[in-house]
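go over both lines:
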Amino acid sequence: MKEAAWYTATHDNAVLCELCPHHCRIQPGKNGICLTRGNRGGTLHSLNYCRPVSTALDPIEKKPLYHFLPGSSIYSTGPNGCTFKCAFCQNCDISQQPRHIPEVSPNALVDQVVQSASAGIAYTYSEPFIWFETIMAVGARIKASGLANVMVSNGFYNPQPLNDLLSVVDAFNIDIKSMQESFYRRLCKASLGPVLQACEAIKKKRHLEITNLLITDENDSADEVRQLARYIAHNLGGDTPLHISRYFPRYNLTHRATAQKTLLDAWTCAREHLDFVYIGNMPAGDKANTHCPACNELLIMRNGYVTKCKFSKISESHNSEKAICPQCKADVSIVIGIS
């Protein structure tokens, strides 16, 4: 165990966790909603510190990140627990119940990443934000090694801890589950506002991509897809990639799997407002490829997780190297190197 960051002790030996917007008030011997931040003797501890629930070497496109170091592999790991209680959780076996996982040292985890010869580390699988102390310790060492830190997350952050994360994390994929507050409260036991606030803060400083899981009869209408796409275009920028994913019945939600036509229609709706929209969890053909928004030149061809990049020139911007379209020389929002 490690003492947690971002909490306040109270007069009655309880603690107030200030990491996420739940602001859990935790009594001695109890844990917060996330399962892994616990009050032990009036001190808040990170119970999952450097305890990776799973590890794998993945294509970075699997996160999904299509515009950040495309074609590379990334060492992927994450913690037990989550700040959400999604009825449709796709990783409920590691996020919704406590598990005993051996602790490793930050240096040992970094060594594994370096030895993997990958582009860096992705904090993923469950909700990595509750691994805050681990990410800050490991992430600084990863950056010192010249590698990338990536987060795949629900975006349910308090602003001050997020600001700390932005000093070490290079790219985020945030899952905006719906544009309806009622959806978040009913199906996730959380709220939408902090997620949108986090996305806007991230976009100002780091690479950002958005994922939206379309769930049958919940958030799959054309009107809601357009609402999300308009929000992204107006608040995050039309060059922000959107990944539309297919839902399958899982955990406590038994709705039928999202129809493939629904995803194709959603792609068309979102493209009315956004330059880059992709379909996941089903064969997508050209809707998995990246084209220059200025001249439609094919820039990245994807077949499953096999990626072929068709650009070579770069421009430098905000400590990163970005691709230039070989046909019209337009800058495109594809990060191909970090510095």
